[in-house]
Amino acid sequence: MKRALSILIVAAMLSACGGATARPDEPSSDVAAVSDPPARPAVDPTPDQAHLFADANDRFAVDLWDRLRRQDGNLAVSPASISVALAMTWGGARGATADQMASTMHYGSDPGAYHAAAGAVLSTWNDPEREAYELAVANRLFAEQSYAWQDDFLALTTDTYRAPLEPVDFRGAFEPARGRINGWVASRTRDRIRDLIPEGGVDGDTRMVLTNAVYFHADWQRPFEANDTYGQAFHAASRSHDVPTMHQTGRFATATASGVQLLELPYQGGDMSMLIALPTDRGGLAALEQGLDADTLQAWTDALESQMVNVSLPKFRVDPAQPLALAGTLADMGMRDAFDPQRADFSGMADPDANEGLPLYISAVFHKAFVAVDEEGTEAAAATAVVMAVESAAMIPEDAVDFRADHPFLFFIRDTQSGAVLFMGRVADPA
What does the DSSP assignment read for 255-303? Predict the structure, then answer.
C-alpha cells in the first residue's frame, strides 16, 4: 500500500505594505546577508511521520485546488510550499488563530509531532549525498531589525526548518528589503521565480518575511528521443491544433479508473515521479477536478501497475508572469482570524507588549510556481510569500496500451519515498 500523498513546500514569506524607491530586483546594499546553515546528513522520517506530513499536505492540496480550479488556462502550484510556509507561521500562532490554521491546513492537534515530521521530510529532500537529481530547499527569515522575536519561535524555525534570521530595515527602507528578498528567492530557484513579492507587497508596517525556496531538476528514467517529437493534434477546450508531442514505448506504471487514465513517469534515481491524470473524455477535465480529493489521489496511486505503454505526451511549460494572491482564498477556507488585525494572535512569534503594542496579522499571501517538461526531464520551482504586518507559496508490442495526452490533463510531481507531491498542475493547452 503506497503511503499517503503530500505536497512539497517551495517557498514562503511573512511581511506587510508601504512606499519608497529602489529597484525590487536588486538586493539592498545596506542589508548584510547571512550564511546558509551547513548541510547536515538526511534523517529519514519514520513511516508515521511521512504519513502525518503527507496526509496533511494532500488534504490541504485538494482543498486548495478546488478553489483555484475555476481559473482558466494552464495552472501550476506547490500546495506544499504554501503548507510548510504556513506551518512555520503556525509555530507562532496561538488560541483560535492557531486552531483555525490547524483545521484549514490539516496539521492535526499535536504541533510538536507535525513540526518534527516536516523537519524530517525536508531533510531528505535536502540530502547532500544525493546525485541522481537536484532538489534544493532553502529557508530564511527576513526580519525587521528593530523588532524583538520570541526565542521559542526562532528556535523552531532555526532547528526544524533550518531558517537563519537576516535583519532588514522594513521601517526605513522596505523597497530595498523587498529587492533583497526577491533576489534571494530568484537565486535559490535559478531565476525561475522572480518578483515573488510585487510592488506594494511590503511596506513600513512589515515586520517579517519568512522564506522557503525550492528548486527541482530531474531527468526521466527513460528519456524521450528528440527524433520522436513531432507535431500532433491537441484538443483544447477552445481549439484543436498541432503541438510538439513526445513519443516512446516502454514499461510504465499505469491504470484506468472511473473517468481517468493514469500514467506514472519516473525520474532517475526512482525517488521522484510525475503522475499524469488524463480524463477519458476529451471534455472531462472539469468533472475530474471537481471530484478530486485526497482519497481519490491515494486510490489512483494504489491502482498503478506496470505495463507496456505507448506514450504520447506534449512538451509544456507553465511560467506565470504574476503571483497568485491567496489571502482571500485561505480566509474563505477557514483561516479567518489570521487575516484579521483585530483577532489575529501571533503572540508566539512576537510579543506585542515587547515591541510597539500592535499585534501581527497576515496581510497577504503570494505564490508562484514554474514547471517545464521536455524530452530529457523536468525543471520546476515555486515560492510562497506569507506577508505579516502590524496595522497602522520503438517497438510497439501488441499488448501495449495507448496513453495519448492529446487533451487537457492534470499532473503531479511526486516523492515516491514519502508519497509527497512536490508540484501539481493543469495543462489546458501546451501552446
Answer: EEETTEEEEEEEBTTSSEEEEEEEESSTT-HHHHHHT--HHHHHHHHHH
Tell me, what amino acid is at 399? D
Distance CA(81)–CA(70), nearest Å, equals 21
Domains of the chain with CATH codes? 7-28+44-218+318-390 (3.30.497.10), 221-316+394-427 (2.30.39.10)
205-214, 262-271, 279-288, 334-343: which range is least confident on average? Answer: 205-214
Cβ neighbours of residue 404 under 8 Å, at least 6 residues apart? 310, 312
The answer to whether 412 and 421 are in contact (CB under 8 A) is yes
Q: Are 141 and 177 in contact (CB under 8 A)?
A: no
C-alpha cell at position 259: 473517468
Helices of type H across 268-417: 285-290, 294-303, 327-333
Do residues 254 and 403 lie in contact, with contact meaning Cβ atoms separated by under 8 Å?
A: yes
Contact 388, 16 (CB under 8 A): yes
Q: 114 near 120, Cβ under 8 Å?
A: no
- What is the pLDDT confidence band of residue 36, given thresholds at 50, 70 and 90? confident
Contact (CB, 8 A) for 214 and 382: yes
Q: Count of CB atoms within 10 A of residue 169's CB?
A: 17
Query: Cell numbers 530564511 label which residue?
Result: 140
Rounded CA separation 410/277 (Å): 5
Cα 388 to Cα 16: distance, rounded to the nearest angstrom: 5
Q: What is the pLDDT of residues 211-246, one digit of tens each?
A: 888 899 999 999 999 999 999 999 998 889 999 999
Give Cα separations from 122 to 115, 136, 161 (angstroms): 10, 10, 8
pLDDT digits (tens, 9 = 90+) for 152-205: 999 999 999 998 899 999 999 999 999 999 999 999 999 999 999 999 999 999
The beta-strand segments (E) located in 321-419 are 324-325, 360-373, 377-390, 401-404, 409-415
> Using an 8 Å Cβ cutoff, are 382 and 318 in contact?
no
Spatial separation of the C-alpha atoms in residues 139 and 149, rounded to whole Å: 17
Average pLDDT value for the chain: 88
Look up residue 362 and give its DSSP letter: E
180 contacts 27 by C-beta, under 8 angstroms: yes
